[in-house]
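During the second half of the funding period, the structural biology subgroup turned its attention to how the target accommodates small molecules. The most pressing case was iron/sulfur cluster, which had performed well in the primary screen but for which no bound structure existed. We therefore specified the complex as follows and requested a full 3D prediction, including the ligand pose.
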Amino acid sequence: MSAALPLTKADFQSDQETRWCPGCGDYSVLASIQGFMPELGIAPERIVFVTGIGCAGRFAYYMNTYGMHAIHGRAPTIATGLAAARDDLSVWIVSGDGDALSIGANHLVHALRRNIPVKILLFNNRIYGLTKGQASPTSEYGKVTKSTPTGSIDPPLDALSLALGAGATFVARTVDRDKQGLAEVLRAAAQHRGAAFVEVLQDCPVFNDGAFDHLTQKEPAAVNRIPLIDGCPIRFGLDHEMGVIRDADGTLGVARVDEVGADRLVVHDPGCEDPSLAFALARLGVLGAGPLPLGVFRSVDAPPWGDGLVAELREARERLGDDELDALLHAGDTWTVSG
Amino acid sequence: MSAALPLTKADFQSDQETRWCPGCGDYSVLASIQGFMPELGIAPERIVFVTGIGCAGRFAYYMNTYGMHAIHGRAPTIATGLAAARDDLSVWIVSGDGDALSIGANHLVHALRRNIPVKILLFNNRIYGLTKGQASPTSEYGKVTKSTPTGSIDPPLDALSLALGAGATFVARTVDRDKQGLAEVLRAAAQHRGAAFVEVLQDCPVFNDGAFDHLTQKEPAAVNRIPLIDGCPIRFGLDHEMGVIRDADGTLGVARVDEVGADRLVVHDPGCEDPSLAFALARLGVLGAGPLPLGVFRSVDAPPWGDGLVAELREARERLGDDELDALLHAGDTWTVSG
Amino acid sequence: MATTEFPALGDTVPARSRAAKIERRERVIVRFAGDSGDGMQLAGGRFTDATAFFGNDLATLPSFPAEIRAPAGSLAGVSSFQIHFAARDIATPGDAPNVLVAMNPAALRANLGQLEKGATIIVNEDAFSTRNLQKAGYEDSPLDDESLDAFQVKRVPMTALVTRALEGLDGATSRDAQRARNLFALGVVSWLYERPTDVTERWIEQKFAKQPHVREVNLTAFRAGWNFGETSELIDVRYEVPPATDVPPGVYRNVNGTTTTALGLVAASIRSGLPLVLAAYPITPASELLHDLATRKDAGVRTIQAEDEIAAAGIALGAAFGGGLGVTATSGPGLDLKTETIGLAVALELPLVIVDVQRAGPSTGMPTKTEQSDLLSALYGRHGESPVPIVAASTPGQCFDAAYEAVRIAVRYRTPVILLTDLFLANSSEPWRIPNAASLAPIDPAFAKPPSNGGRFQPYARNGDGARPWAIPGTPGLAHRIGGLEKQDGTGEISYDSANHARMTELRDAKVAGIEVPDVVVDHEDGADVLVLGWGSSAGALRAGVRRVRDGGRKVARAHLHHLNPLPANLGEVLRAYRKVLLPEMNSGQLARVLRAEYLVDVTSYTRVEGRPLLAGEIEQAILELL
Amino acid sequence: MATTEFPALGDTVPARSRAAKIERRERVIVRFAGDSGDGMQLAGGRFTDATAFFGNDLATLPSFPAEIRAPAGSLAGVSSFQIHFAARDIATPGDAPNVLVAMNPAALRANLGQLEKGATIIVNEDAFSTRNLQKAGYEDSPLDDESLDAFQVKRVPMTALVTRALEGLDGATSRDAQRARNLFALGVVSWLYERPTDVTERWIEQKFAKQPHVREVNLTAFRAGWNFGETSELIDVRYEVPPATDVPPGVYRNVNGTTTTALGLVAASIRSGLPLVLAAYPITPASELLHDLATRKDAGVRTIQAEDEIAAAGIALGAAFGGGLGVTATSGPGLDLKTETIGLAVALELPLVIVDVQRAGPSTGMPTKTEQSDLLSALYGRHGESPVPIVAASTPGQCFDAAYEAVRIAVRYRTPVILLTDLFLANSSEPWRIPNAASLAPIDPAFAKPPSNGGRFQPYARNGDGARPWAIPGTPGLAHRIGGLEKQDGTGEISYDSANHARMTELRDAKVAGIEVPDVVVDHEDGADVLVLGWGSSAGALRAGVRRVRDGGRKVARAHLHHLNPLPANLGEVLRAYRKVLLPEMNSGQLARVLRAEYLVDVTSYTRVEGRPLLAGEIEQAILELL
Ligand SMILES: Cc1ncc(C[n+]2csc(CCOP(=O)(O)OP(=O)(O)O)c2C)c(N)n1
Ligand SMILES: Cc1ncc(C[n+]2csc(CCOP(=O)(O)OP(=O)(O)O)c2C)c(N)n1
Ligand code: SF4
Ligand code: SF4
Ligand SMILES: [Mg+2]
Ligand SMILES: [Mg+2]
C-alpha cells in the first residue's frame, strides 16, 4: 500500500532478513539510509534502488522500495535506462568498490559525465567481500589478500579523483559509522539535480578489518577527519588547530594554523565550476592512514541528462493514435496497386 | 630479417596500402611515427603495435613491426598480457576516442593506474570515423551526428582529466599536423618507464572536418597553442604576450603578461608528484575553440607494473625440470599403495 | 569487339527524335557501378523509385566498399547498386545483371565476373584514362582488346557530354560536371527502359529546392542523359518491361529492412502505449537502425547511444523495468557482449527486444558482408539453462511484421526476444504493401494493478501463459525486489532450494516452449516429395529457385520459418512428410543442427558461407540434384 | 525415543579403557555439520587425511553456505563436510550419510532429510538452547520428542566436556572451548572408526607450531574426544572399515579438483617451457584456482587479477601472442563476457585455455551450487562460425589430465580451448594417484623460426594439423600483423573475398574437427544392450550407479566422454551398438542435443537441474527403468 505521509523509518524496512556478517559496516549505512529516507517525503513506491553484485549489492533487498539486484558492475546502465523511461522516480544506485571501480568503472564514468539524474552510493571497503577476500581496485599497494598472497602490485584507484576526472557534478565522501555526516551528505546528494556520487568508506570486519578505524574510532577520528564546509576555511584537529593551505607550487598541504596564520587557509568552495579545486582536495588525502577530507567536495548545478525529454516524448506519444501511425507508415513516396 | 641498425623510416613502413580517406589526419601521424621510430634504436621485431577497432585501429597494419589489430576497446588488455609475459619488447597501443574512452575506458583506466609499461596513443577526432559518423565521448555537447540528429545531450569527456583521475604517471597532448610537437612528446613518452598516455588531436575531414583547425592552421595555431615547457613559466600567443596564472580562488586562468606581470605566471612542473597541477592545466582548456595547452602535462617516474617480475619468474622456471615437477606434484601428505 | 563507335564530338548529331526498336522483357537486372564518389547509390535509388511508380515489382541490393576507406578509382573503392524489376512478382535482386553501368575501369573490372553472357555494358569512356586503368589493375584498356567480346559494350563519353550540356548554364563548373555524371547515366538508363521522367525530376526539384544551381545542374544532366538515348544511334533497342499484374492490391512504398524494422518497433510502441527506448552502440550494419530511430522523436522514440553494447542492453532492460519498451540493436560482436545481460533478463522475466543484424563472422570478420551465422549463439549463447524466443525476418518488408511480433512476444510473455535480421535485409529494398494500423494485433502491457485486497504481492506468480506480473515502479502496494539470483517460485525471494531451482528451470523453459506461434505453412504441390525449407533473408532466393524448378515442370514444396524458438508445432510432422528436406543456409548448417536434434530428421544442408546472399540459380541447382 | 542418556556431569566416569563391540563395515558415509563458524571443514579435512593414510578409498564433498553471509545458528549458515570411505574402490561422496555429527539444531535440521534410516546422529547437546532451536525454526527440541525415533541419537554435551578437558590447561578461556569443539567431535568420530590419531596430532603440531597455546587447546580437545569414545558407554559399537585392496598401486595424495587443475596447468607450463600467465577476475567457484596459482611464483607462474572477465581473457590472449601459456579461469557469468575475446582467439588462431568452473545458472543463479549447464554456451556462445575444442574433466583427480590435455590441444593446434569443470569437482576431493613428470606427453611450442631463405613469412600457412605458425614478437624476419578481420588464406592479409571466406571458414572448422582425440572406451558386459553415457563430474555417480546395477546381477555398459568437441571418432558407432543410451546430465539435456544432431540417435536424457551432484541411487533407478 502507498505509505501515507509523513513517512517513518519503518516504511523503508523490507521484511527480508539482513544477511551481512556480524559487525559489517553495511548495517550502519542501511540503518542511516532507512532513517534518512522519510526526510525526502517521497513515497517508497516512487523510489528505486538498483544495485550491483557484492555484499553492498544486497542492499536492494533490505529497502522496502522497488529494487533491482542487477549483475556485476552494470547497475549504472540499468539506472540510466530507468531514467530514460521515467521522470517521476527517485533512483539510487548502491555499489561496491569492485562493482563500481573494477568491472563497472566504464559505466560509472559515463553515468557521471552524462550527469544522469541518479544518486550513486559506492560502499568502499577496499576489498572484495562477497567473493571472500580478494584485492579490490582501492586496496593498498602491497596488500596481501587471497588473490595477492605476495602483496598486490597494483597501485590503488582513488574513487573521487576518477569521478572528478569523468566530470562528475556532485562528489562527496563519508564513513559508515558517521551517522550524521552520512545524513548530511545524503541530503545534499538528494537535492542535486544530476548524478550525485557518494563514496561511503565501509568497514569489512571479516576481510579487511579496521581499514577505517582512524576515521571511525572516537580518538583518531577527531584528528583525522577533515570536515569540508561550504564557504568556510578548511580546519581540522581536536581544537581545529590544523588547516589546509595552498603551497607556493600550487598544491594543497596541511599546516598548523598558528604557524601559517588563519588567512592562508583554503576556503572550501564546492560550487566552483572548475573541478580542479575539488580534485586537489581529493589528492590531499587519498585513502591512507592520515587525515582525510570528508563531506561534499563538489556540487555544481547543471542540467541533468535529457532534462525534460521524458515529458516531451510522452506528450509526443500521447498525440499519436492509429491515424497518426497510418500517416507514419505511409510517409515518403507511395503508390497504389488496385486489384 | 632483423633490420641492421642504424634504422631508417623505411624499416618501419609495411607493404600494406594505407586505406584512410584522403586528407585524414592519421596519415600525418603515421608518417611522424614512422619517422620517429628509428630514434628509439630498437629493432622493428622488438616493437609491437596493438590497436583497437576504428580508423585509428588500422594503424597496426602500416607499421612494419609485430602488430595485433584486436577487438574494439580491448587493446589495453592485450598489451597488458604481452607485458606480463615479456620484458624485452617495446609495446605501443593505438586507439581512437570511441575505442579508448567509450567501450574501452575501463581498460584504459586500469592500464594507467597499474602503470603498465606501454605507450598509449589516443587518436582523438571527436567522432566515430570507421562506423561513418556517430558521436563519440569527446564530441561536443549539442553536436549533430548520424546518431544524434537533434544534437548530442551528453557532455563530453576530457581524455586527460580522466587519465589523471585514474592516476596516470605520464600524460601528454599533441596534434596530428604538428610533426615536431608530436616527435617531442613521443620522445618523452618512449623514455617513460610506465604507462605513457598521449592524446593526439586528429582531424577527420570526412565526418568532423576542421575540428582542430584552430590548432593546426598557421594563423590561429600561433594564438591557440599553449606550449608546456618543463621548468618554464607558461606563456603563449604570437609574441608570448599571454600567460597562465593562478587566480585568487586557486583556479588557473589566462591573462596578458604585461597586465599581471611575468612573475605571476605559473611555472610548468610536469614532475610534481601531486597530479593536481596537471589536472588544473587540463581543465584550463578542455577541448573547445579556445587556447589549449599542448605538450607533456605530467611525467612522474614510478616503478612500472610488476617491475622485474618477468625476469624473476623466468629464472624460477628455468630452475625447474622433471624432478622439480615431480616434487611439486608430490607436495603435501602422500601415501603409497603397493601392488 | 562489339562496340558501337560514337560520332566524334566534332560532328554534332541533329537532335531529332528517332524511334529505336522496342523489345519486350519479362524481367531485367540493372547494376549501376562506380567509385564511392560517383553517386551510384543515388542513381540506383532514383531509378528504383521511378520503377516502383511505373508499377513493376522489384528488389534491390546496394553494395558498399568495405568499411575501410579506399583510394578513389581503386577496386576496393567500387560501390554498386543492383535493381531487379519485372512484369511479375519477383523475389530477389537477381543473380546476373543484364545491364551494367560502369563509371570507371575499376567498376567494370569488379563487376564483369557476375554479368550474364551478352549483357549490355554502358561505360563512361572518359574515365578510362591510363591512371584509372592502372588503379583498376588493367595493363591496357579492356575497351581496346577482345576481353569484352562476349558483351554489348556502349562507350559513352559521359564527362564530355555532361560538360557540354552544362555549357548553357552560367556558373557551371567542371566540378558540377563531375558531380552530375550519375544523373546523366540515370537519364540514359531511364530512357532505355522507358521509366517515367517526372518522378525523378520532381525528386530533384524537391531535394535541391534550396540550391537552385545544384538543381539546374542535376536536371540538365538527367535530361541530357535521356536525350542522349533518344538522339544517338548508339543504343538501338529500348526495352519495355510492362507493369506487374500479379502483385496483390494495396498501397505500396519502397523500403529497406532497416526502415521497416524501425517502423515495426514504432508501431508496436504506439499500439501498446509503451514508450520506445532504443539503446545501441554503433556497429555496422546495425547502426542504421539507431540512425533511423534517432530521427523519430516526434513519434515519442528515445534513442541512446550507449558507451558499449553491455550498457546498451542494460539501458534497454532498465527502461523495461520502468515500464518502457526496451530495445537494443547490434551485430555479431555486440551480441557476444550482451549475453550476460540477456541472461539477467531471462531471470528477471522482463520484456526486452534484442535486434541482431547479422554480418559475416567470426570475430570482426567481414563487417560489410551478410551472413546468418548467429543463430546458435542467439539460441545458446548464455551460460546456464537460459531459454530465449527467437524471431527471424525473411524479407525487407517482412522485417516490419517480425519486429512487431518480437515485441508482442516479449510483452505478452515477459521475456527477452532476439530478432534476427541481417545486413542483406537491412540494406536491400522492395515494394512494401503498407498495413493499416487498425489491422495490427493489439499489444497489451497489462501492468500489474495495486492489490485490491491488500494481499501480499507475488512478483513471480504466473498467468495462463506462464508469464509473471509486470509491476512497474510507482505502483503503490507492489514495491518488490528482483535480481539475477534464483528465485522462489511465486514469492520471487532468493532461494537456494534444489527442488525450487529445478521447478523454476522447468517453468522458464515451459514458458518459452509454450509461446503461441503459427504453424508453418507449406507451399506444396501434389506429388512433390522434396521440401525446401529456409529461414531469414534467403526467403527470396528460395522462392525464386523453387519457381524456376517449377517453371521447368518439376515438383517441389517450399516452406519458410519465421519463428526459430519455439519452432512451429507442426514442423516435425511437415519434415517427416517429405522424402528429402533441403535446408539452404548462409552458415555452416546451424538450423540444420537444431532440426536434427529436435526431430531426428536427416535434413540435407546446403551451405554457403561467402558473405553474400544466396542466388536463385544455385538453389535451383541444389533442388534439381535432389529430385 | 532411542537415545542413550549420558551420565549427568556430576557423577564422573572412571577412565578405564573398555572394549566396545566392533562391527565390520564395507563402506561408511560420515557428514560433519555445524555453523559456518564451527570449523566443520577443518574437522572433515583432518578426518579425510587420516582415512587416506589408513588406506581406505574415499571421496569427499564439502558444502558451504550460499555466498550470502548468514546469521550464526541459522539454517542458511550451516556448513557441512561429507566423506565416503570404504574397503574398496569408490566413486562418489555417497548419497545418504550413515553418521551425522550435528553441532547445533540448524545443522541437524538442515541435514536430517538426507540421512538413511537408522543412521547415527551425534549431537552437541549443549548447543540445543531455546535461542538456537528458534533460529533453526524448531518449536521445541527434537531431542525431546519422537521426531528422531528413526535414528540412533547420541547426545554429547561437547561444550561442557571440552571446557572440563581444558580446565587443566592454564590460560584456557571459554572462547578456546568454543573454538575447539570441532576437534573434540573429530576425536569422537576418529575413535568410532579407528582412525590413526598420530596423523591428526602431527598435523595439529605442525599447523600451530608457532602458537603453542592454540596447539595445546586443540590437541587436548581432540584427545578428549577420542577418550570420550573410549571411556563413555554412550557409544557401544565401533566400526572397522578395512583398508581398500582394489586400488591400483602408486603414490597417492588427497586433492580436490582445484589443486589438480592448477597442477595440470603448471605441469604443462614446465613441460612445454611456456611461461604460465593466468588472468582471472574473481568469481565463485573459479576464484579458488586464482588463489592456488597465485601461490606458485616459485613455479614461474604469473597470476593477474584483471579488472573484469573481458580483460582477463584479453590479458591471457596477449600473453599467448607474446609466446606465453595464456590461461583464464571463470564461471558462468564470466564465460558470457569472454565470448567476444574467445572469438578473436579463433580468428587469430593462437593457443588460449579458458577454464569454466560451472555453477548453477541462469544469470547469477546459485553461485554456490553445482551444474553442467554451460556446455552449449561453450560450444556455440560466439557469433559467426567460431569452432572451439572442448575438454571436460570427470573427477577431482582427472582434472589434472584434463587441464594438461587442454593445453596440449591449444598449443598443438593454435586454438582457444575451453576446459569445463564444475563447482563439485573444484571442491570435492579424492585420493589421486600422482603421475610422474616423465610420463606426461611432451608439449612442443614449436615457435616459428626466422626464415632461412629470407622468403616472405606466411602467418596463415598451415601444417599437417591445419595449424598455423606461432611467430612471437622478437623473432627477426617474422614481424607480421594479425587481427579479427577475415584473412587471406596463407598470407593472413585482410580479405573480403567470398571464396576466401568460405575457404577460411572451412579450414578453421576442419582444424578443430580434425583434432586427434582418443576413442571413447566402453566398459561393456556381454549381453548389455543399454549404454550409460556421461560427461563431466557425474562420472563417479554413473560408475557407482552402474556398479549397483551389476551387483544386482543385471547387465549394463558404461562410457564417459572427456572430449566434447571434437567428439571421439568411434562414438557414433558405439551409440548405435546399443538398444538404448541413457545420458544423465546436470542440465536440461545439453549433450543429448549435440549427440542427437550429430548422430541422429534417440538418446534417453536423464536430467536433474537441482544444483547438486547426481546420486548413485537415482542413476541405478534410471538404469533399471530402461532394462
Ligand atoms: C560477471 C561477474 N563476475 C564476477 C562475479 C563475482 N563477484 C560477485 S561480487 C564481486 C566483487 C565484490 O566486491 P565489491 O564490489 O567491492 O563488493 P563487496 O562485496 O566488497 O561489498 C565479484 C567479483 C559476478 N557475480 N559476476
Ligand atoms: C564490439 C564492437 N562494437 C562496435 C564495433 C563497431 N565499431 C568499430 S570502430 C568503432 C568506433 C570508431 O570510433 P573511434 O574509436 O573514435 O575510432 P575512429 O574510427 O574515429 O578512428 C565502432 C563503434 C565493433 N567493431 N565492435
Ligand atoms: S564480507 Fe565484509 S562486507 Fe561482506 S558482509 Fe561480511 S563484513 Fe560485510
Ligand atoms: S573516416 Fe575520418 S578518421 Fe576515418 S579514415 Fe576517413 S578521414 Fe580518417
Ligand atoms: Mg568491496
Ligand atoms: Mg574517433
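Two results from this model are relevant to the next phase. Chain B has 13 helices and twelve strands. The mean pLDDT of chain B is 95.
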